[in-house]
Design goal:
18-stranded antiparallel barrel, mainly beta, Porin, disordered N terminus, 20 strands
Length: 504
């Protein structure tokens, strides 16, 4: 092998390795994760190209195919008249559909720069959801259909082995910590990306990203564009030098003008009302194994700024925004016990708004999360105006098989605020009057309900994984009283999925 090229590959590998070392403690203990493949798999194309030509190690060609069947029973169907979560009577609340997602990538890595391009095709069949309010109806395809588009395309300049500064520029996913506040939303058939510029300062003591970005709004049958009226910027720093811990600190800014709601003709993701919200947060996480069988994570975020509340009765001007969220989770892993069981407990709380007419706004801004992993797999809840007590039990019967059983109990933080869905939108009623929807009623009991989740994953081969899950949501007094009118009524909800992932 040419020695210059060998040196290039060595330095590139070292750069990737250092980044991975800094990032690895950010992976969460508590969230369910599919089992790893039985052996490393670079992809069929990479294996063929690299077999006889070591120069091809600088290239990466591959992709993934994901096929999922989902059944939702008791879930409101977006765009269907009268359909509400947990409504019993006079509503279509049953939706079963297939989703397929194909991603194909190509990248090249040199000593001081790299380039990455990834295309995506997201398809859906029989999905009865129409999409979001004010957008064209795509019955049969739903909000997770986008047949062909550019998912990522970015260049990176820098080599942290030689110099602490690097630049990443272009369309890219942004993932921080366990994605509770900033995530790629990979559960969704389309996912989330940003058109962003990110400068990274990295050394042996800490890594800090300084970025500015615009969220990309998916639109079926149109090239996806970022919003000219919404920006997301911030500083996110991580240090592993706290003994036995990883410490994250961040300052984030989400800004949207009144034009953000009409930035593109038919968005397939929620668009924000006008706001300028600033989040200051800290995260302390124990390093894997450094506390023996114990682990824990603490997140605390405070927010300030202003917010245009579009709920009925709210002032037309922007409101002063002050909010907070706090999460603590911990667990114990029986490392010397067959199947290495882990028991975990988590409490998450996020503030609500005590009075939508007082000129202040207190509902926590959930930013850009991957909520599917945290507040019940049936996807009813976001980190807004909520208390969530979560119990977790995980098993690995074999290296290829992982199982998880979880339980949640939910309460509204403030019954003077709304019950928010997983996308962050307040649930509304159909008509006015007690027991006829989810309008604000401070007299109601705050107990929302409980959810039980079962998830399993099996690594079929080094390139294919199978997953399946089931959830049942038991309604509480808040839901039962909100839908007490005989024309509505309340019911429990069920969710099931089966999914195949294939890498190539």
């Amino acid at each position: 092998m040419n020695m210059t090229h060998s040196s290039t590959l060595t330095r590139s590998s070292a750069f990737i390795g250092l980044a991975a070392c800094l990032a690895s403690p950010l992976l969460s203990f508590a969230q369910y994760a599919p089992p790893p493949p039985p052996s490393p798999f670079p992809g069929f194309i990479n294996e063929a190209l690299r077999k006889d030509d070591p120069y091809m190690n600088a290239w990466d060609f591959g992709g993934s195919l994901r096929v999922r069947y989902e059944l939702k029973d008791g879930n409101g169907i977006a765009g269907v008249p009268g359909s509400l979560d947990f409504r019993q009577s006079n509503a279509d609340n049953h939706n079963a559909y297939f989703l397929e997602r194909l991603r194909v990538r190509a990248s090249y890595t040199d000593t001081w720069w790299s380039a990455f391009v990834e295309g995506r095709s997201s398809l859906a069949q029989n999905d009865e959801r129409f999409g979001f309010a004010g957008t064209p109806r795509h019955k049969g395809h739903g909000p997770e259909s986008d047949p062909f588009d550019l998912h990522q395309a970015f260049v990176t300049v820098g080599n942290h082995k030689e110099f602490p500064l690097s630049l990443k520029l272009g369309r890219q996913e942004m993932i921080y910590a366990d994605e509770r506040f900033i995530g790629a939303f990979a559960w969704n058939n389309i996912g989330r990306v940003f058109d962003a510029a990110k400068v990274r300062w990295q050394n042996s003591w800490f890594a800090a990203d300084i970025f500015t970005s615009r969220p990309v709004l998916p639109e079926e049958d149109r090239f996806n564009e970022s919003s000219d009226y919404e920006s997301f910027s911030g500083i996110y720093a991580t240090s592993t030098k706290v003994p036995k811990h990883t410490l994250d600190v961040f300052l984030l800014s989400r800004n949207a003008t009144p034009q953000a709601t009409t930035a593109v003709p038919a968005p397939q993701a929620p668009v924000p009302s006008a706001r300028d919200i600033y989040s200051i947060g800290v995260r302390l996480k124990s390093k894997p194994g450094d506390l023996g069988p114990w682990d824990y994570t603490i997140d605390a975020v405070g927010q300030f700024g202003n917010f245009r509340d579009t709920r009925a009765g709210a002032p037309s001007s922007r409101l002063d925004h002050t909010a907070y969220a706090f999460i603590v989770q911990g667990g114990y892993t029986f490392k010397d016990t067959p199947m290495t069981p882990r028991l975990g407990l988590e409490f998450a709380t996020a503030s609500g708004d005590s009075d939508p007419t007082d000129g202040d706004h207190g509902t926590f801004e959930n930013l850009y999360p991957t909520n599917h992993k945290f507040y019940g797999y049936a996807d009813f809840i976001s980190l807004q105006n909520i208390h969530d007590l979560r119990a977790i039990f995980q098993l690995k019967p074999t290296p290829r098989l992982s199982l998880a059983v979880e339980g949640h109990a939910f309460w509204l933080a403030d019954t003077s605020d709304n019950f928010y869905n997983v996308g962050g939108a307040p649930r509304g009623g159909i008509t006015s009057g007690a027991g006829r929807g989810y309008g604000i009623d401070s007299s109601l009991d705050p107990f929302v309900g409980t959810e039980v989740d079962l998830v399993a994953g099996y690594a079929l081969t080094r390139y294919a994984q199978l997953e399946a899950g089931y959830a049942h949501f038991f309604t509480g007094s808040y839901i039962d009283d909100s839908l007490a009118d005989p024309a509505f009524g309340s019911r429990d909800a069920n969710w099931f999925y089966a999914q195949l992932n294939v890498n190539f």
